[in-house]
Amino acid sequence: MPLFGNRTHLQSRRSRRKKRTAGDAGTSTGGDGGGSGGGPLDGRLDELLAKVTHVFGTDTTLTVRKFRIFGTYPAAMLYFPNMLDQNTLNETILKPSMSVPTGLDPSEWSAPELLDRLASEALWHSDCRRTEDFNDLIEALLHGDTVLAAEGSEAALVVGTRQIDKRGIDQPGTEQVIRGPREGFVEPLGPNIALIRYRLQAAELRTRQLTIGRKTRSKVVVCYMEGLTDPDLLAEVDRRLGGIDIDAVLDSGYLEQFIEDNQWSPFPQVQYTERPDKVVANLLEGRVAILVDGSPLALIVPTVFNQFYQAVEDYTERFMQMSAIRMARLVALVFSLVFPAIYVSVISFNPELIPTEFAVAVAGGRAGVPWPAVVEVLIIEISMEVLREATIRLPQQVGGALSIVGVLVIGQAAVAAGFASPITVVIIALTTIGSFATPAYNAALALRLLRFPLIIIAGIFGLYGVMIGLILIANHLLSLKSFGVPYLSPLVPADAEGMKDVLIRGPLWWMKRRPAFLKPKNPVRVGSEMTEPPETKSRKQEGAHSPSTEKE
Amino acid sequence: MTKATRDISALQAAAVLVSTIIGVGVLPLPLFAVRAADTGGPLVTLLACICALVGLMFVALLGMRFPDESIIQYSERLIGKWPARAVGLCVIVFFALLTSLTAREFGEVVVTSVLKQTPVEVTVIVMLMLAAISARNTMTTFAYIHFFYVPLLLVPGLLIVALSLKNAEPLNLQPIWGNRPGGMFDGIVTIAALFQGSFVLTIVIPAMRKPAKALVVSLYSILIAGGLYVVIVIAVVSVFGAEETRELLWPTLELAKATSLPANVLERLDGAFLAVWVTAVFTTLLSSYYLTSQSLTQLLRLQEPRIFTFFLVPFVFVIAMVPANIVKMYEAVVNVGRIGLMLTIAYPGLLLLIAVLRKKGGSALGR
Q1: At which of A460, A486, A512 does a domain end?
Q2: How far, in Å, are A303, A490, A504, B51, B142 from residue A499 at the CA level?
Q3: Interface contact B267-A467, CB threshold 8 A
Q4: Which pLDDT score, from 0 to 100, does residue A489 have?
Q5: What ipTM was reported for this prediction?
Q6: What's the pTM value of the predicted model, to 2 decimals?
Q7: Which superfamily does CATH assign the domain made up of B10-359 to?
């Protein structure tokens, strides 16, 4: 009963104070993490509570719970009840600090050392630290931790009680595989790091935490492999992340836009993934992963172009089949960029290139179409973009219906109405499907975007124009860098070891070294004995020894 | 040049030279060869390759003696400040001319065979702008660009040659020294002039990881590019015969026209060949343009190497428009090329001689 009474008393006091501070809320510097009352703590509990309530103003979710440690020392516990589990709070903090543990004689404890001894001898909570800084205390509160302050102590205890509800770990939505792990990242940082660490149980795995975002105070974690990742790369990542000064980091995508090399390039220079296995694979190649609290997508730097058409399955499935499929993907990627442009230029400028029968058929199909090929292609291409965007934005239940309506009905009707020729519809459909075959959505976006200028220049200059456009794009790609690594590595500059994983996916035992363009400090990743699969080797040895074994 | 990064491998340097040499010159090349010595065309081309190799080796040897400088810089130490600057200016003007003529030549090719209604000014300015934009890159990227495009140059050239073999008649190639060997020297000079873009080696060497490899690089690049030249001349002469080739303005393009892919995938190859050949012309143009603007900044001792990239476009464009028609343009190409040989072969040869006599510069081979 006294507990309950105490609490109501507290709350009424708080509401009184609320009224008082409401008046000068405008002048308080509130949210900046206690600009008004920064600095060290001085040991007076009332003063501390006043400062805290001043910082949070009229906010109603902050709870201040006053009590006496071991029934003697006045103390208070501050927390945001929605960000933690109150049962844990009761069991691990409140209970041990109110009832005197057996074998202890707290009456001898002096006020200044009270909290330290409490932490080391009484509290049943693992994550417990001491702070003497007021701003740190406010930050901890905002993070969801509990602050324990006592009269006469110039420090406060911060107990890590944060517990935010999270969705369960489920299959990554954007990177599905037939063969491979089914786990995807979730929003909170903790489980994500756990997902990485349980796959990569190596002491060399390092995490480095930063806080970015003036208001959101988002936790950003940089993961890398000690003794493997290039230290210059790490320094560069730190430098770029350190330079970010914005209000809010709501997703890793915010960071990407600040750390990429060239903001004006249509090509993504940072890869993102929601697959922990992909992060681990990249860490082991010598890359750096950046995770943000609240974002299920990890960033991976440096990124080179060939990563955008590699899929997880390339490595989990057998190499020969996946090499063929990777080539198909590459064809799709090139298709999605140049197919409509080549179509336009062949139809409008060089019909003599294609076989005569086909050229006649194409001309027949285009007979009723009133505008030149470039206009026709642009119209169909733009309507395709509209359809695609609509399909993404609509609620899932409607989406399926819309895509059928869009593709079948509109396509058919457009041809029947003499609005577009059938061959154009085929070309655009192939292009669109080709762009879906690119595993990385952001790279597909870039190619989608570049398709339009190519179509237009094809309409003006024909194949010559397409080549000019492609040369411009290729030169841009060649001059692009991601964290100092040339974007087209390992193709240009050539790297024989890296080439085993560009067009084809070489057998795992064949790719002995990590990609050299990442400058790993420890380049070898496959044991030197692994020249070929163990099975073949043992068979060979058996073959060599077989005569003697047969005799026996 | 400020402290440049030495990032270019021997392979990349060779790629720069190969893709620079293979350019728009390949299109009229068989005509030049056949004009000089009818069926002796391939032989003339081969001799021209050797001639070009000698010039390139002078540049390479000089580069190995002065691995941190380009010709503009070390020539001042060899023959004195003002004479070197005067010749340096000549080199720059010459390469500006070469750039403009290359752009004009390809502009004419495009306008004549594909975009028949487009004014030649448009195609020329498009090519020049393309070169100017790309010339803003660093030396490393410059090498990457060339390296990336080399397969695009070699594959179509060799493909056309291979596909034309079914129409080839070996008898057309005989006698191999031609029917009137007297004109050979003229032809050698004209064709050797097509190799002059390789002078770009002088600014590549200071960025090479191992400048000592410059000699090997020049040897291999002439072997590859010159090999393609010879093979193309052989193919054209053996398919058309010397007399027929003489009537063709761009025999290589005609060769592409005369061939078709198996299974009739593409009925005619000339349009596609020309499209792919844009890259070959682009790389040549980029090299000479880059050489011009870089040398100009070195001559004027400017720190910012990109300052002239766009500034030069109008000048080069105006020069490109001076010849009244294709005939006049080819006269200019041949004449400018011959004068250029003085600058790209004789001048480095002279410098090398002086360097050896005065014992200037260290030997990169010793490193």
Answers
A1: A486
A2: 16, 6, 8, 37, 21
A3: no
A4: 87
A5: 0.93
A6: 0.88
A7: Amino acid/polyamine transporter I (1.20.1740.10)
